[in-house]
């Protein structure tokens, strides 16, 4: 029986867990990736990580964007370098929440694809930022953890609304 996955939003606990290593790329993993693709398309995302569909697995994908093809990253290892640059970011798991996030400009990533083949990519473009954002999800880190205090303050009500929707007793 196929599992029907949907986007998971803050404060769901899976978003705060360090994701587990993928031991083998089987039908279950392929199903998770298919759901990630579908959800990213439906929500017009640039990338999505497995925890965002309720699966604590070290998988993310980046959608086709600015001439780059869609790619699946399984068990990625990320190296970041360069000066930090502020850029506006949002997140599918934090709807209507945006903020300026400081991230290093360059990244090198090594991962497995869906066929189990290892690959390495480097970028000092927008893609490096997307890798860092999605990798954060695998570590249980959200953009609200990286926001400057002013952006956090500006988003306080939206964050609280998400938390209340998950647990109505929080607002009392």
Describe the structure.
This protein is of the alpha+beta class and 172 residues long. It contains five helices and five strands, in the order αβββββαααα. The chain has helices at residues 27-42, 126-138, 143-146, 149-154, 156-166; strands spanning 47-49, 59-62, 71-90, 98-112, 118-123. β2 and β3 form a beta hairpin. The model has no long low-confidence stretch (mean pLDDT 93).
List the helices and strands and how they pair.
Blueprint (H helix, E strand, L loop, with lengths): L26 H16 L4 E3 L9 E4 L8 E20 L7 E15 L5 E6 L2 H13 L4 H4 L2 H6 L1 H11 L6
Antiparallel strand pairs: 1-2, 2-3, 3-4, 4-5
Give the tags:
5 strands; Peptide Deformylase; five-stranded antiparallel beta sheet; 172 residues; globular
Distance between the amino and carboxyl termini:
40 Å
Largest sheet: 5 strands, antiparallel
Write down the Rg. 16 Å
Instruction: Please identify the oligomeric state.
Output: single chain
Outline:
globular
The assigned CATH architecture is Alpha-Beta Complex
Helix content estimate: 25-40%
Number of strands: 5
Discrete helix count: 5
Give the CATH superfamily.
Peptide deformylase
Spatial order of the strands in the main sheet? 1-2-3-4-5
Which consecutive residue ranges, at least 5 long each, have pLDDT under 50?
Answer: none
Tally of discrete structural domains: 1
CATH class: Alpha Beta
In short:
This protein has 172 residues and is α+β, with helices and mostly antiparallel strands. The protein has helices at residues 27-42, 126-138, 143-146, 149-154, 156-166; strands at 47-49, 59-62, 71-90, 98-112, 118-123. It has a single domain (13-165), classed as Peptide Deformylase (Alpha-Beta Complex).
